[in-house]
Amino acid sequence: MDKTSIIGIIIGFAAIGLGMFLKGITVESLLNPAAFLIIIFGTIASVLIAFPSRVIKNVPYLFKIIFTEKDQVDVKELIDQFTEWAEQTRREGLLSLEGQMAEVDDPFLNSGLQMAVDGQNPDFIRDVLMEKVAAMESRHEEGAKVFSQAGTYAPTLGVLGAVVGLIAALGSMDNMEVLGAAISAAFIATLLGIFTGYVLWHPFANKLKEKSKQEVKMKEIMVEGILSITAGESPAVIKDKLSSYLSSKDIEKMERKSEEQEGGNVAEETK
C-alpha cells in the first residue's frame, strides 16, 4: 500500500474539518446533496466526454496504482546484477546468459536479454526497447491526464454550483433566514470543487507521473545495461555508467558497501 497517498488524503480531510471547526462551521453544513451532485457527477460527466472509453476503462486500475506500491527491482541490485552478468559473459560468452533468463521476472528485461543472446544488432535492440518505453510513457501520460483534467474541471464546476445556489438565493430575498442559508449552501459547491480539484485530482495526477518516471528510469537502466553487455564492456565500466542513474546518497552507499567487501576479502586472505 502506498502510505503517502492514504496519509495525504487523511491530512487533507482533517485540515478542512479542523479549519471549519475553528471557524465555527458545523459539519452538517457540508451535507448539501445539490453541491455533491454538481461537483462529483459533473466532474465524472466532463471526464467521460473528454476521454475515449479505452482510457476510461483503465481508471480503476489507475486508482490501484495510486494506492499501492508496485514491487520494483532495487536500482543498486539491478546494477550489481548487470555487473555480474558482464563478468560472466567475459568468461563464458554472451550465450551463457541464456541460463540466467529463467530467473528474470521482468518481461522487459527478459525480452532485451533474449535479443542480445540471439545476436541481434545493438541498434535494433535499442530501437525495439525504447519503442516499448515510449509506448509505456504514452499510456501513463494518458492515465495521469484523466486526473489532471478532473482537477481542472472540478473547481470550475464549483463556481457553477455557486452560481446555481445564488440564483436560488435571489428567489428568497424576502426571507433573510432562507437567504442566508441559501448563500451558505451556494459556496459549499465552490469549497467541494476546489478541495477535490487541488487536494485529490491534481495530486493523483502528479503521483501517477512520478511513478511513471521511476518506471521509465528502471527501463532505461536495463536498456543501457543490456547494450553495454552486448558491446563487451568491462564490469567496472558498466557499473560506473549505470551508477550515473543513482542519487549521490545511493552512490555513497554503494561505495561504502564495496569498501566493506574489499576489507572483508583482505581480512580473509591474511588469515
Automatic annotation (TrEMBL):
InterPro entries, A to Z: Flag_MotA_CS, MotA-like, MotA_ExbB_proton_chnl
Intracellular or extracellular location(s): Cell membrane
Keyword Nucleotide-binding set for record: no
Residue ranges crossing the lipid bilayer per the database entry: 7-25, 31-51, 153-173, 179-201
UniProt GO BP: bacterial-type flagellum-dependent swarming motility; chemotaxis
Chief location bin: membrane
Domain named MotA/TolQ/ExbB proton channel: residues: 103-220
Any GO CC annotation of this UniProt entry: plasma membrane
Recorded topology in the membrane: Multi-pass membrane protein
Keywords from the UniProt entry: Cell membrane, Membrane, Transmembrane, Transmembrane helix, Transport
Keyword Iron-sulfur: no
PANTHER family linked: CHEMOTAXIS PROTEIN MOTA, MOTILITY PROTEIN A
Family to which the UniProt record says this protein belongs: Belongs to the MotA family.
Protein name: Chemotaxis protein MotA
